[in-house]
């Protein structure tokens, strides 16, 4: 440990592993340490099933659910957008050679009254959906056609809209979309977590809509992908990427102290040795004095022996419950994977319901989601604190990731990763710098 590194990364959560890979790809000398013996941190996959029962201190016989080793249960399951930045990175770096993905079968949205509806995938579904009335379908179809033809670089496609000034609210008004339609477009398509976006320039909203429908067009069923054997494979994929570019990994290695001189990090002390470095990247648990609590997330991992009702027996799906539909400030997220993803014994399903905590009875806040699942065989509930860094890290050179939010997709995770990369290096990550796997092998 007497070498000097450009970057020391602490923790093997997915964000830290991605950043380790990006830094290595960018030519930085990286040392990656974790106090745990396993990859994934708080976003780990748990196997065998007996370990999930132990982790949640839950009584019960796990063996009734078949061989424990056939289960891989993500503590924080999230789906990948088929055309999103994480998939771009996986494809370009060749991490996909270690991973196999399956398309999520359905994307649904909840409407007042307790019904779920498939998010319309194209103009045809927009016309046949029971989510909207006849006139509203026409308005939505026109909105959809506008989004599809919109080209940022071609003002002729903008129809007089200045997307850098016009707000999302004004664009909705232009196409006469009612509140219910705005809800599902804003939350189930654009994946906004609340309604703050309504008053902001619409360009971001248009980009998010295009990403959703471009991702959807890739495979047809839904815009989402999920890796076989669970998300635990992702951190390891990026760890291998880092190693290809010279990154050094040490699991089961405690961090005793982050060492500073004149307020700037100079190294990390572990078991009596100090590794020197120019910067540290870590999750909030390594620097409690540099983060603030900004809320909590409540999650319920549920084992089912049947598909979620009203999804046409889908073997996997995502359901978003927009805040307004259930009189909340934050959306509720439901996702489901199954034995087809090699994460459960044949015939079984793993569903997650999650939201940002708003009351002093967090589990009760999940009811709208839990009620959609039908009979639940086992339920594992957790409440996690949400932390954010208290400064940008540019002075101390310690860059801290934010906790994982309640969303069941990776879009917010990617934004945090790319933001940290920019703060740490002073530049946006250049995807063209990444050699393909074949080039690296040569």
From TrEMBL:
<dbReference type="InterPro" id="IPR018203">
    <property type="entry name" value="GDP_dissociation_inhibitor"/>
</dbReference>
<comment type="similarity">
    <text>Belongs to the Rab GDI family.</text>
</comment>
<dbReference type="InterPro" id="IPR036188">
    <property type="entry name" value="FAD/NAD-bd_sf"/>
</dbReference>
<dbReference type="InterPro" id="IPR000806">
    <property type="entry name" value="RabGDI"/>
</dbReference>
<dbReference type="GO" id="GO:0007264">
    <property type="term" value="P:small GTPase-mediated signal transduction"/>
</dbReference>
<dbReference type="Pfam" id="PF00996">
    <property type="entry name" value="GDI"/>
</dbReference>
<dbReference type="GO" id="GO:0005096">
    <property type="term" value="F:GTPase activator activity"/>
</dbReference>
<dbReference type="GO" id="GO:0016192">
    <property type="term" value="P:vesicle-mediated transport"/>
</dbReference>
<protein>
    <recommendedName>
        <fullName>Rab GDP dissociation inhibitor</fullName>
    </recommendedName>
</protein>
<dbReference type="GO" id="GO:0005093">
    <property type="term" value="F:Rab GDP-dissociation inhibitor activity"/>
</dbReference>
<keyword id="KW-0343">GTPase activation</keyword>
<dbReference type="GO" id="GO:0005737">
    <property type="term" value="C:cytoplasm"/>
</dbReference>
<keyword id="KW-0963">Cytoplasm</keyword>
<comment type="function">
    <text>Regulates the GDP/GTP exchange reaction of most RAB proteins by inhibiting the dissociation of GDP from them, and the subsequent binding of GTP.</text>
</comment>
<dbReference type="GO" id="GO:0015031">
    <property type="term" value="P:protein transport"/>
</dbReference>
């Amino acid at each position: 440990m007497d070498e000097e590194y450009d970057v020391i990364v602490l923790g093997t959560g997915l964000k830290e592993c991605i950043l380790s890979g990006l830094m290595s790809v960018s030519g930085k000398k990286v040392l990656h340490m974790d106090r745990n013996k396993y990859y994934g941190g708080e976003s780990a996959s748990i196997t065998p099933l007996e370990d999930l029962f132990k982790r949640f201190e839950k009584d019960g016989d796990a063996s009734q659910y078949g061989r424990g080793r056939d289960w891989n249960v993500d503590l924080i399951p999230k789906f990948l957008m088929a055309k999103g930045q994480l998939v771009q990175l996986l494809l370009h770096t060749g991490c996909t050679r270690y991973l196999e993905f399956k398309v999520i079968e359905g994307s649904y949205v909840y409407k007042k009254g307790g019904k779920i509806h498939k998010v319309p995938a194209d103009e045809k579904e927009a016309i046949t959906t029971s989510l909207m009335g006849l006139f509203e379908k026409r308005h939505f179809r026109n909105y959809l056609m506008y989004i599809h033809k919109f080209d940022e670089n071609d003002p002729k496609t903008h129809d007089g809209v200045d997307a850098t000034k016009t707000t999302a609210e004004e664009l909705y008004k232009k196409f006469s979309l009612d509140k219910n339609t705005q809800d599902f477009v804003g939350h189930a398509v654009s994946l906004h977590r609340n309604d703050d976006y309504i008053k902001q320039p619409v360009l971001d909203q248009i980009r998010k809509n295009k990403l959703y429908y471009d991702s959807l067009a890739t495979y047809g069923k839904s815009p989402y992908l999920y890796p076989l054997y669970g998300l635990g494979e992702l951190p390891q994929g990026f760890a291998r990427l880092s190693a290809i570019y010279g990154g050094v990994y040490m699991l089961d290695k405690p961090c005793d102290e982050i060492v500073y001189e004149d307020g700037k990090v100079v190294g990390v002390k572990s078991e009596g040795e100090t590794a020197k470095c120019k910067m540290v990247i870590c999750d909030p648990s390594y620097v409690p004095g540099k983060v603030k609590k900004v809320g909590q997330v409540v999650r319920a991992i549920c084992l089912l022996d049947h598909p979620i009702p009203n999804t046409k027996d889908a073997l996997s799906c995502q359901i978003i419950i927009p805040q307004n539909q259930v009189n909340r400030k934050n959306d509720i997220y439901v996702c489901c994977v199954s034995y087809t993803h090699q994460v459960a014994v044949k015939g079984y399903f793993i569903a997650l319901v999650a939201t940002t905590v708003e009351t002093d009875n967090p589990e009760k806040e999940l009811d709208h989601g839990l009620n959609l699942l039908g009979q639940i065989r086992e339920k594992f509930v957790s409440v996690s604190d949400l932390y954010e860094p208290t400064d940008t890290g540019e002075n101390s050179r310690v860059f801290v990731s934010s906790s994982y939010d309640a969303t069941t997709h990776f879009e917010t995770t990617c934004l945090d990763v790319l933001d940290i990369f920019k703060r740490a290096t002073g530049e946006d990550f250049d995807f063209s710098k990444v050699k393909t796997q074949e080039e690296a092998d040569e």
